Amino acid sequence: MAELGARVWLVPGGRIPFSDTAAERELSGGTAAEPEFTSFDQLCVLNTTDRTAELSLDFYYEDTDPVGPYRLVVDARRIRHVRINDLIDPEAIRLDRPYGCLVRSPVPVVVQFLRQDTRLPDTVALTGLMAYPAD
Amino acid sequence: MAELGARVWLVPGGRIPFSDTAAERELSGGTAAEPEFTSFDQLCVLNTTDRTAELSLDFYYEDTDPVGPYRLVVDARRIRHVRINDLIDPEAIRLDRPYGCLVRSPVPVVVQFLRQDTRLPDTVALTGLMAYPAD
Amino acid sequence: MAELGARVWLVPGGRIPFSDTAAERELSGGTAAEPEFTSFDQLCVLNTTDRTAELSLDFYYEDTDPVGPYRLVVDARRIRHVRINDLIDPEAIRLDRPYGCLVRSPVPVVVQFLRQDTRLPDTVALTGLMAYPAD
Amino acid sequence: MAELGARVWLVPGGRIPFSDTAAERELSGGTAAEPEFTSFDQLCVLNTTDRTAELSLDFYYEDTDPVGPYRLVVDARRIRHVRINDLIDPEAIRLDRPYGCLVRSPVPVVVQFLRQDTRLPDTVALTGLMAYPAD
Predict the structure, then answer these.
(1) Interface of chain C toward chain D, CB-CB under 8 angstroms
(2) What chains are in contact with D, requiring at least 3 Cβ pairs below 8 Å?
(3) From C35's CA, which of A108, B89, D8, D87 has a CA 20 to 30 Å away?
(4) pTM for this prediction
(5) Number of structural domains found in chain D
């Protein structure tokens, strides 16, 4: 099968919503369990190729130089959904700080962005979009 | 008319939200009727051609080999909106399990993804995006 | 300026959510005013050219032949946001009926889709996506 | 590194939701703080190049000539997230007025659109999409 996707993807509009999850739990009477109902930004990667995709991520900010590379491995013929909150090396991505993300892969992949926003109690907002393929 | 669309489409960010619909009904006092207010992931396909589109779907996972093909027929000059929950052959797509989807069609079609999330009572979240066309 | 956009656009995933707006008003104690808080699907068209865009829309369904053309005029250097509910000639688009839409324009335009879902009282869900450009 | 993105981007479906934020605060018992929970439309720009991007924005309306250019600077190797509400020169963008936006940049950038809708108390709706790249 032909290889599907692109090797460079960009997301300009990142910002992990900050949830005061303790307050959330109290107000919702326990309905909203952790970590299912925390707020998060997520990258979803689909690697249909027969080779491991060792992705390199760089994060861009409003007021400082880009930080990276972050490493993310997506095995051959696998997906990987990673919460931006979980990226900690070389440094954690801070909550409520606007960022953009550049994803580079040695093999073609497809990259989607998803945000779940549960900052207000007992409500969920979602938005997803395909990242922009640049090659 | 020229044929419109592409023959290969990909969605990296699938995951059918799990709704405890019994709890949902109780808490909402019957406002939220089934199956209108269950959570679902959906593929929406538009076939403007004069030929039947016999689609082949493969599902990719984080920890196991892809599963497929699933078969989905979209008649000539028709749409089809299918809930991922309803795909059961060769096996059902489990709730809350991250997946990616590869759609192949012998004729050009257009594929959109839609998620409705009603895990919390009395609230609806929606997100939709065009799948990524790869040919 | 070069002409911006495409002449053919497609949206596979239409379905105008049905709001029982009378019930909605009662439950929300009057907070949700009409028609700001009804449910709708919307097409948003941007025509940056110096010529009027006389668009032709065809609607595709699951179980019957396409219906159209619907006519929609977007003046030169103007936008137009039209609720699908307001398209009535040659026939109204029924609520809760899945559809796909094909938009054709004699001049390049850009087409976006937006859904507002207010079926449940006191909550708003939104999803938007760019239509698929096919030329 | 090759330059990533496009020099012309379009968003057809703008409209800043009008929040009666005083009513919002009262009804939410102070949960929803300003300006985190106001309604807004936002442009998110990622400039991965080594040159400053001096963007030019034009706003298109339903019933009058386009207004612009608005100027927006995105430094080299930086992002910028700007609320449409904050664009005031040559004139403020009015709330609840449908608009489309044309973004031009002398260097390649990537542009995303995001809407947060908090018109109803204690609920957040989000929708995001990549702008349409036209060159």
Answers:
(1) 2, 4-5, 31-32, 36-37, 42, 44-48, 77-81, 109-112, 114, 122-130, 133
(2) A, B, C
(3) D87
(4) 0.93
(5) 1
